[in-house]
Amino acid sequence: MKIESVKIFVSCPDRNFVTIKITSDEGVYGLGDATLNGRELAVATYIEEYCIPSLIGRDPFDTEDIWQYFYKGVYWRRGAVNMAAIGAIDIALWDLKAKALKVPLYQLLGGKSRQQVLTYCHAQGKTLPETMDAIRQKAELGYQAIRVQSGVPGMKSIYGIAKSSKGYEPAIKGNVPAEECWDTNKYLNFAPKLFAAVRKDFGEDLHFLHDSHHRLSPNEAARLAKELEPFHLFWMEDAVRGELQEAYRHIRKNSTTPLAIGEVFNTIYDCQTFITEQLVDYLRMSVPHTGGFTHMKKIAALAETYLVNMAPHGPSDISPIGIAANLHFSISINNFGIMEYMGHSDLTNEVFPHGYVLKEGSLYLDETPGLGVEYNEKLAEKYAYEKAFLPVNRKEDGTMFDW
């Protein structure tokens, strides 16, 4: 079997997605998710111009060698665009292999380690009462784990809060990114009050998570983690930006609140110290953005050795192909913790029909060979790419800050 053709599709069924389709000379094809929110065309062009010529004629079963070729064969290694491209190719090849062998993809990864994949959803509001109502609605739907974000008194905008009733969508259409404003002191003073109210109303049975979105210093993060200890969070996420992995030593020394990080990581080298020093409890790397199954399995194996669990990033800016990839990965490894799942619009689900289903806060795979996701090319053609960006963030005095 040889790779005969590779196609790239960029479409916008409610939001932008980049999809790759690799077809063999026997007519078997695999799909991959190459979406990188706000930089979609960069990945699409990279694959089109630099990867496709090197794929034609290769044996699609040689996933390890093909992965190493695109990683080691490029002098400028790592990086979001490069690794998203490699991830999309790798996912499509594994999908193709599983279809050729007529088995669901997880069977090639070691089979099932569990019957269902626990997920967490998002509950958010502009005010504390709105947030409490949102939590109640999610709990009534059967979710056992809920990420809680709330507007902060005195701040006009804050990460995780929807601007409309349609739900949270940070990517804003236009030619330049929108700008948001941030005040760390107001946030630090409010966050413990938020979770005191949440635990008072909802008790101890539900798992609650929170995302600081890389906006704290190590000392600020240690303070917040310590103050949140009485409320028994499932985790505090992205407390400090992860470029300096050693910064988390200070948080660890000062708090027992579980820590999570990793949604913007794309190689094992981004998390090596986090794992080997047990500085976090959960790694939030996703299969599409971290080089696909070939690389993620190696990260999970190293993490398992140090008792760190995997918790894949699953936002709505990963297509159902990417979500399915996360699911097959999560159901197959032993050291799985939880998976984020924001879901998709009805239109997106029409373009990407799939077999996985959500029941009472957990996702279930069917037994369809491969990933269990298709791509409706004709329908997708109706929805052309629309440029959109994630916001940028400044402090109240105008200093450029982390978003």
CATH class designation of the largest domain? Alpha Beta
Portion in strands: 15-25%
Q: Uncertain spans, ≥5 residues at pLDDT below 50?
A: none
- Global shape: globular
Query: How far apart are the termini?
Result: 45 Å
Helix/strand/pairing class, anyone?
Answer: alpha/beta
Give the helix level as a range of percent: 25-40%
The overall average pLDDT, rounded, is 96
* CATH 2nd-level architecture of the largest domain: Alpha-Beta Barrel
Largest sheet: 10 strands, mixed
CATH superfamily of the largest domain: Enolase-like C-terminal domain
Task: Give the number of helices.
Answer: 12
What Rg is obtained from the alpha carbons, in whole angstroms?
A: 21 Å
Helix/strand order:
EEEHHHEHEEEHEHEHEHEHEHEHEEHEEE
State the total count of DSSP E strands.
18
- At the fold tier of CATH, the topology name of the largest domain is TIM Barrel
Count of separate structural domains: 2
Question: Can you characterise this structure?
Answer:
The protein has twelve helices and 18 strands. The protein has 403 residues and is an alpha/beta fold. It folds into two domains: 3-103, Enolase-like, N-terminal domain (Enolase-like, domain 1, 2-Layer Sandwich); 109-370, Enolase-like C-terminal domain (TIM Barrel, Alpha-Beta Barrel), CATH 3.20.20.120. The model has no long low-confidence stretch (mean pLDDT 96).
